[in-house]
Amino acid sequence: MSRLLLLALLWGGFLLQPLAGEGQSGSGETPAQWLGRMNRSVAHLSFEGNFVYLSGRFLEAMRLRHQIVDGRPRESLFSLTGQPREIVRDADVLTITTWVGGKPQTISHPSSGRLSPLKPLEADALQHHYHLMMGKPARIAGREGVVVALVPRDDLRYGYRLTLDRESALPLDLTVMDGEGNLVSRIMFTQLKLQGGDPDDESQAAVEPVPSRSRAVRMTVAGGEDGSVSTGQKGGSSWTFGELPAGFRLVSHKHNERGRQEHFVFSDGLATISAYLEPLGEGDRPFNGETSLGSVNAYGRQLDGYQLTVVGEVPHRTLQLLANALREKE
User: Fold this and answer.
1) What is the pTM of this model?
2) What pLDDT does residue 259 have?
């Protein structure tokens, strides 16, 4: 039995339909069309809901609120389990509040990225490394949903199953599974409330565009003729990565405030890998080999007095390939 067929069967009896064909959603829409609707909904709609996040043996419940205020996004994330904490992000500021002894403690940072686990996905780029297929309908949070499966074409990434709300195309469930069909992680809404808006009306919100793969690379990466990747950041880095795992590209690089640690972020458009590089100090314990924490895998190695730690929700082999690609610039 082929690996693709085995994965599909493990994903719950999918009626497999490739990207180029007709969808199985009952509306004739393809996976690419559903992902396009999802991207517009995530950018334009105001909504709130509760979701649970399962990672290994770790389970947490959160409340998410996403609003469009005067054409600009505002998000808040509040923990419903464990220590109370809230994160609020608007276009300019990220505010983190924790409660210690019943008293709030607040810190603020410049805003960057998204709080929501709902991310835009570009079908054209993803299909190079994932088979996009429609699955059987599902019901999540009391809402009817359609299923889009992203089955990996190789063993360098995990498989993903997206359940989208049939009405709004907002994601209701994101399940990640490994090559054997074992659950890696899951984000599932248990309650979702729409607060108006039309995802096809571009006047309602300032859209955060889904960057094309080539545009994302040009913005953040300067590539050499040998296919190597180095940062395009001012001041740059004295380190570079050679041949990367297939499909992965450098999308971000920065130094921490003290300039000692460098943080590289790689992505294939869906899976993300972080690489942290810092000099080993006297008495520091080096980390070698692989380990796991919940759904996140990690791999460590040393090179010329530096510690490299690579982490991500991808197979260990992918992390090792990335780590072994690091070299000092000549």
Assistant:
1) 0.78
2) 62
